[in-house]
Amino acid sequence: MSAVTSPQPLDLSHHYSYASKNRNPSSVKSFYKYFAIPNIANFAGGLPHPSYFPYDTLEATVARPQRLQPSNKDDTKADRVVIPKEVQTPDLTRKIDLTTALQYGTAEGYPPIFSFLRQFVRDHLHPNVPYEGGPEIIMSCGNTDGFSKAVELFTNIWNPDRDWIQQREGVLCEEFTYMTAIQTIQPRGLNTVTVAVDGQGMLAYGKGGLKDVLENWDFRRGRRPHLMYTVTIGQNPTGGNLSIERRKEIYALCQKYDVIMVEDDPYWNLQFPSAYEKESRYRGASTEPTPYNRSYNAEGKSSGYAFLDSLLPSYLSIDTEGRVVRLDTFSKTIAPGSRLGWITAQPAVIERITRITEVTTQQPSGFVQSIIAQTIIGEQLKEKGALALMKQEVSSWRMDGWVRWLEGLRGGYERRMNDMCSVLEENKYLFSESPEKSSTVDHVNDWEVVDRVQMYDFVWPKGGMFAWVEIRLETHPLRTKYSERKLSKAFWIHLTKKPHLCLVAPGQIFAAGPKSAEKEHRYIRVAFAPMDPEDVSPFTRRLVEGFRSFWKRENLDGLDDDDETLAMQSMQLNSGINFVGPGC
Amino acid sequence: MSAVTSPQPLDLSHHYSYASKNRNPSSVKSFYKYFAIPNIANFAGGLPHPSYFPYDTLEATVARPQRLQPSNKDDTKADRVVIPKEVQTPDLTRKIDLTTALQYGTAEGYPPIFSFLRQFVRDHLHPNVPYEGGPEIIMSCGNTDGFSKAVELFTNIWNPDRDWIQQREGVLCEEFTYMTAIQTIQPRGLNTVTVAVDGQGMLAYGKGGLKDVLENWDFRRGRRPHLMYTVTIGQNPTGGNLSIERRKEIYALCQKYDVIMVEDDPYWNLQFPSAYEKESRYRGASTEPTPYNRSYNAEGKSSGYAFLDSLLPSYLSIDTEGRVVRLDTFSKTIAPGSRLGWITAQPAVIERITRITEVTTQQPSGFVQSIIAQTIIGEQLKEKGALALMKQEVSSWRMDGWVRWLEGLRGGYERRMNDMCSVLEENKYLFSESPEKSSTVDHVNDWEVVDRVQMYDFVWPKGGMFAWVEIRLETHPLRTKYSERKLSKAFWIHLTKKPHLCLVAPGQIFAAGPKSAEKEHRYIRVAFAPMDPEDVSPFTRRLVEGFRSFWKRENLDGLDDDDETLAMQSMQLNSGINFVGPGC
Questions:
Q1: Which of B43, B148, B164 comes nearest A543 by C-beta?
Q2: What is the pLDDT of residues B291-340, one digit of tens each?
Q3: Which end of chain B has fewer CB within 10 Å, C or N?
Q4: Strand order of the sheet with strand A55-63?
Q5: pTM > 0.80: yes or no
Q6: In angstroms, what CA-CA distances link A566 with A233, A431, A558, B30?
Q7: Domains of chain A with CATH codes
Q8: Is the CB of residue A292 less than 8 Å away from at least one CB of chain B?
Q9: Is there a contact between B41 and A539 if contact means CB atoms under 8 Å apart?
Q10: How many CA atoms lie within 13 A of A495 on its CB side?
């Protein structure tokens, strides 16, 4: 795409909140020249003296990018990264030392990691952003922080005691989604407006789809929603990946109705091509065409890496107007406790988020910024016992290593997904022992007719860390005696009992609105990510055994204890609360 | 103080903002028991697998607490801290490892550092908080983050286009203060309400004092302010320490007018008893009674440390009603880039801030939380070259070492303060070469009458990192030809020129309101903290030489370049902006 024909990003300032419009612009650059006067005695900056930082070096033993094998056993080799007290270089993007990393810095981010990520984003992650000049980035303290800043920027608080209903703003989201995002919106008095989903993610058309919601907006609820929160890869909890075709449909609707799109994609590199294949093999057809081996950047610039080219691209790749704000994080690629990520959007939006950052988080911790900078772009020492500190054998991740690490991670999670889903796929049915207990008669393969009931269904997760399992409560023998909600609660408790001993996340904790609440009890989310690889199959077998034994129950005795109900309700209230993680 | 007679903290919920009232309470504890079921297969939590965190160990070479000598040369000995991949212990407050530190955690903070600080705060820092049960804490990402959460909790945004003026809230602060705090308030449409200060800090009584401001509040501006932002030790920029007597007066006014007090004390341990002594020695009398060698906790519980007992106590020590929210940070005691601190307040306030934290920063970075936890409370290895890694000689900071480190820091900054202020003290006057150029005739000491003009004045900073210098513009020979503002700008530029080469922070960047703006040009803030110790005296001599040569100027040629004016204006706009530090 040539620069000459690129469109300018839209002016989005009519979407900004009162406080965010009101922040003063910064033009400090003209002052920097005074800092640069040779031998100037600086009485102006109120900084602590760096000799009083108690750390002389910061070090880590760090995996090689090749540790995680896409198909074989992981290796355990490690290198050392060392961050010294001070490095003498005028190039701030190469100056990784404690004197700068632990001092006050710039809100955009620590220059070495900021400049690396800016290049990664513009040249490799999103090489085909259509608008003039391309996107900018700013570091965040992870995606929850990033989303809270986007919400601060784009929404005004609505207080029913002092504001008119016409002033009430709203946020669009998938009907089942990451509840911490919803908990960011709701205290501000905003409408949470759910859009129906299928196995891919948000629906553009059809009943409850985006068009339906926007076109038939009931203005008695407030303003038509102008902000969207969406998880498009390995959607949490449904595990769907949004196809490029669907993205184009949804983007066009957002253009038509002037909606800002916040794309939260912590699982972006965890896309599982084998899920399409396996699903097809088991079921004759996948829910979607298999994109395996497809190069998404075939028509535009390549990312430079076959792995990245094979991944479904971000909304940014079709964002002609600059209405996409993308959230990326190191939580799933390095570690959640990093609390480090970045926000990508058109420059004017990043400028506003910079103003917000300056008076809130200021900058992510220099400890994590410098350690990750040194891990990815610094020089590293091969670990050979304690003497490594003195032997300066240089290696490094660099861009190649970073992409290799992402690919390795994908492999590890993809194997767990396959192990879990194979067991789930092969055990959906309960084959009844006597004809009178069965409720459905159907064909299995082609070679036999037996009595069976389907206990659950699921779509193979095409990305992420979870499978989303629909409980077929209508096939349970006790369905005439108890409500589906009662059965669902009893089932959750049943699973926690011996010999099943399974803890699953109930659908309630992802239900973003009243429409989702109507069917929330029909779902559970099962995570394969946190399990040791050798546990996935046996644990999943325990889970399906829990299904079977529940379907064989003739009563719900011992499954309705108040404590347990309270526990489930507290899970519902508290996904992401107190224990701040994805959905738990 | 016995528990029986302690008052209950007040219910402050009438101060909460709309969004903060609206956050759902958390009661997740009842769910924890499911996690504790032996051998439970956890499909519920959506956490990454810890083997995919690329760090096997995290290490640092760390100063011993005795490194900084209150009076002698610092030593350079260092120990190693090592954070291993995994530690097996059921005690979460002792489990410092990467498997927990880099995983999702709790919003309150990483258990080892949280529990250490909670004990430090309750038993040592503030052993005499009067209300029942004492205060609670939560970790923050530094005091700017902490203040932004307090502002989110206690204020509602006011938008002139949709709200009544009666709804406009306001925040009280010192007339000159840390501008990032003001920049947190102003975009929300709040009134910034300045209170006059003297050498100690905020005035309770007299013109422009707190009583005057609150009693004579003009309701046409909005609600009477119900929130105060105050820096009470080493106030930024004035360097004052607020006495216990003044605190009692101000607290009583805040009780009367129902004001919440946010005490931001990053410089708390940097209190300089010698400043009172030196000031008295030079001037015959200090501006305040010398508190040197006083034990502030003599009437209550001791902190257990003579050093801590000798420090002016927090507002918390007189907070019978629970209306004080205190912000502490590791920025000045470990390093600014840590972005780690904590908030102390009555439990109900901490509970609300926990709800805010869960949907914004979630938790500070596990890298910094674990490194600081291991530094202070973990086992450490003495550094003896690279072999140290294998020799498990255990040492540690612990509570004693932590307090010793704080005392050492105080010593280092106190020496710099003394070096700077001695030079300032001894060079305030310009002794005129011929009688016709002098504007004032006065007595020096007692032994001689000479012609002299006082170029500047200052109060010795009793704490912190800065001296606040008043420029006596009225004594300048050119005062009849140019306005004071013009002279002040020219002086700032003059200082940056050879041979002076001094960069000082102009008063404008700390002027919080229109009353402060009237006199802002009469002040500069000079920081001694960032300088190497051997530079402080010679740099300060260059500064006073700059004063002298400016007072000898017969014109302002070359000092009114637009660029320079722009630079000063951008400093004014941008203290704390872009380059996020204290006032620069």
A1: B43
A2: 666 788 888 999 999 999 999 999 999 999 999 999 999 999 999 999 99
A3: N
A4: A394-395, A380-382, A78-83, A55-63, B55-63, B78-83, B380-382, B394-395
A5: yes
A6: 32, 34, 15, 7
A7: 3-24+140-157+165-271+311-337+359-364 (3.40.640.10), 412-574 (3.90.1150.10)
A8: no
A9: yes
A10: 26
